[in-house]
Specification:
Layout: E1 2-9, H1 12-23, E2 29-33, E3 37-41, E4 45-51, E5 61-66, H2 70-82, E6 86-93, E7 102-107, E8 113-118
Parallel strand pairs: 1-4, 5-8
Antiparallel strand pairs: 1-5, 2-3, 3-4, 6-7, 7-8
Length: about 120
């Protein structure tokens, strides 16, 4: 069900040093480093930390749900818009993550960034 989770950090360098250390005994490591966000995992970066850059009075959380295919991402997006969600990013390819990353991002009623993502080809 979950694809990945992300948290914003007040001090990204301190958080990265912490997670580099505490996740190692669990067999996880930093797998991606975009300077403003870092992904950790064992086989896939499914835990992310990032600079705090949004949220008014709170730290926005990010959660991504696995979608079976791109049509499912589109259906998630349509349902979210129908439910009144703020659109962050309409369904699209995001090659900055990888060539088949197809995701849609909306804001939930509490202000969190919620995504549906498919990693397969079209």
């Amino acid at each position: 069900m979950l694809d990945h989770v992300g948290f914003q950090c007040a001090d990204l360098a301190a958080s990265a040093a912490f997670y580099d250390r505490v996740l190692a005994p669990l067999g996880a490591r930093r797998m991606m480093d975009h300077k403003v966000a870092m992904g950790y995992g064992t086989d896939f970066p499914d835990f992310w930390i990032a600079e705090q850059d949004s949220g008014d009075g709170f730290r926005e959380s990010h959660i991504a749900f696995k979608a079976a295919d791109r049509a499912t991402v589109d259906a998630f997006f349509a349902a979210a818009v129908e439910a009144g969600a703020e659109v962050l990013h309409a369904p699209a390819l995001h090659p900055e993550y990888h060539e088949n990353y197809y995701g849609a991002f909306v804001r939930d009623p509490d202000g969190n960034n919620v995504e549906a993502v498919s990693h397969g080809p079209a």
